[in-house]
Amino acid sequence: MAEFLQFAFSGLTVGAVYALVALGFTLIYNASDVINFAQGEFVMLGGMATVFLSLAGVPVPLAALIAVAATTVVGLALYKLAIDPARGASAVTLIIITIGASIFLRGVASIVFDKRFHSLPHWFGDRPLTVAGASVLPQSLVVLAGALVIVVLLWAFFERTLFGKAVLATAANRVAAKLSGIDTGFVVGFSFAVSAAIGAVAGVLVTPITLTSFDVGTLLALKGFAAAMLGGMGHPVGAVVGGLVVGLLEAFGAGYISSQYKDAMAFIVILAVLFAMPNGLFGRTRIERV
Amino acid sequence: MSVVLEADGLGISFGGVKAVDGVSFRAEAGRILAIIGPNGAGKTTLFNMVSGVYLPKAGAVRLGGEDVTGMEPQVLAARGLSRSFQNLQIFFRMTAAENVMVGRHRHEARGVLAHLLSLPSVARQNRATRAKALELLDVVGLRAQADIPAGSLPYGALKRLEIARALATEPKVLLLDEPAAGCNPVETEELDRVIQQIAQSGVAVVLVEHDMKLVMKISSRILVLDHGRPLTEGTPAEVRAHPDVIRAYLGGHGAREAAGV
Amino acid sequence: MTSHSPDIAAPPAAGLLARLASGKLAVLLVLALLVAVPPLFFPSGFYYRVGAIVWILAIATIGLNLLMGFAGQVSLGHAGFLGIGAYAVALLPSRYGIHGIAAMVIGAALSAFIAWVAGRPILRLRGHYLAVATLGFGILIAMVLTNEQWLTGGPDGMRVPRLVLFDWPVRGSDTWYWIGGGAMLIAAWLALNLVDSPTGRALRAIHDSEVAARVIGVDVARYKLAAFVISAVYASVAGSLLAFFDGHITPDAAGFLRSVELVTMVVIGGMGSVVGSVIGTLVIVVLPQTLTFLSDYKHIMVGAFIMLFMIFLRAGIVPSLAALVRRRG
Ligand SMILES: Nc1ncnc2c1ncn2[C@@H]1O[C@H](COP(=O)(O)OP(=O)(O)O)[C@@H](O)[C@H]1O
Ligand SMILES: [Mg+2]
Q1: Which residues of C touch A245 (CB under 8 A)?
Q2: Most CB within 10 Å of its CB: which of A167, B171, C205, C225?
Q3: Is the CB of A284 under 6 A from ligand 1?
Q4: Between the CA of residue C45 and those of C49, C50, C52, what are the distances in Å?
Q5: Residue B85 placed within a domain
């Protein structure tokens, strides 16, 4: 039982990070149909920038704030300089652009920062708490709480603000949104900025546990994308559930079956789910109109 | 005349709304059956069920006397049913001739290995397929545009290209979904001729069309749909005189137009 | 076929000469020159080495283009087949004494079989769901190659016995340059054959409208599967040749990054263009080599170039330039 809890906690912790990456994918996809494979680089930038600012003497909380702000600007720049100029290009062309962007950002990070692994201090110390026999890092709870706060904020934004509704309208029907006077270009730019910010926050929160380096983004993007698809692309709740499920599958797979095949676990389940539900867990089956 | 295609009590719903409900019809070889009704009446949906694109929730489809309900479109095509689309489904990146050549697919040898190696038989077959395609383009008046990319042909031409492509399969039944929509009077005239020619060759034609003049002129029977349900069925004269049709569908303008034929 | 297979686009008015110049033979001639001429100017053996890699990888790219550019189905896991081909020629000769060529054929057959079995359920998925399924599939293959140390040597990889043809050990970058170039030409020839056959037309039709293809009798599932299997065999053969050439392989050959690289090559060169696949491979392989003087800045430039190519030549290098020439001419 203690073992089970142990795996569950570590699964939820990484799962929360995957969920945030998947949310980033979903936000951008809904606003623009772009699958942004540079999503993982936002997580990397958030963590790495915080590390290097704090090494330069900036207090960690301030460093984290600056890092998130800087990453947000990077997200906006990605949209303005690479995605917007390619407006109207095919989906796969846009995907390749984001892959180019992720190679680019990784390259920049390896020079501006370095190629080593880095950590950040745990917020509330690194003495594990004991819960029903399982030991839990306080930082894990920080990650989970942080993810929860972000999800709640996003929900409130979409449900309670006029601009949030405009974003939703854009996601539902871009042409109609445009006709009713919504600045859809602004909405897409905003989505890139928010996705970047969410990624950066995830990076700040999880770096004390998982460490970070210039090249952690690829794997995170891959897992986040898989999680988003598992949930059902374009579905925010699906993204969160997908992320947590992938995290849990990895943790239990590693714990009970084989640590070498932990990534396999997640993908086998994803393949199985997609074969049974071709539109993911939460995606609706739609009959294509002809 | 022999009944080739039979739809029996077909029904389907989307999100709880019945788009088509209890619709039946029979199409005979060499005849034109028209299906009319206002936008959203369920005509296209009916075609989608009959051609295997949608799985009907109720009812049955019989082709040549055999139950083919729920069969895939390519299986139905092999059994002699083809169609055109209201919203163009053209192979835009291929030439007009190539579009029609794909329609010959089920009459071609399909060994992938032979194609990879480009055996002499493949070249021979390509020539035969192309000759047949050009013949059909001639029928619909597009012979001169054969080697132009379909993407750069005008709308009316694409409508006819779809018909040529469907004909290339050598169907026993041909479903045409609003072939005259977006066509100018000259093109419509041409279409009139083409459709009649197809029927005369022994094909059972089912025609969905809003151009009442065309419908009244060339159909032998007309089925009227409204809100997914059959309103009436009969000869053009009967349908034209039917009070429900005049009220529910033809309305003022359409009634005059139909009566004027 | 114009914008779709720009290699063999021939507007009828352009005359016999233009038609010849854009026919299948002309495309092959261009590719043959591309292989044959540069060595006249190679200052060192290193260039042969890079060239050999380009031609061999181009085989995999051409194959993937049949799937992506013709059938319109994306695969983010195609390096998995590259890995199967590579490990087949590493394992079978050393463990079971099977001849290298036979090992390559067995690898290709195994790839075809795996693609055929896995392709059925996977290809039912659409768009990004297909992408994630192929991604997972490729990762599973890479993971087996990494983790089954007893068989594959694990993450460090394993040595590949030298290919021996009729008592003649095949060695040297220049030899492999010509073998790779020849194999690429054969691969291109086969692909070009396919384009103007019932299979090629069916695939291109599926790309534009699946439903229209179906109602005129094209078995869409069969042709998607055929394209998947053919592209798997292409990748497998490329993997085998690459392994022979390198003499050593690691699971990275089958990794996600390799798969992404293959997709990038297809898209950068131009979807649906066989010449484009070769050019796309050339760009992606050679670009980092020419930028090595930038050392650490290399990756930045590679990423920037990929973005610039896609923004300004969004249909891919070859189709975009072909369209440009056509507009000017
Ligand atoms: N794939 C689908 N999903 C949801 N609703 C559909 C779909 N296809 C058709 N409908 C609905 O079914 C009804 C009939 O549509 P349709 O068959 O296109 O009418 P018609 O062709 O007679 O104009 C409409 O209300 C339409 O919105
Ligand atoms: Mg309709």
Answers
A1: none
A2: C205
A3: no
A4: 7, 9, 11
A5: no
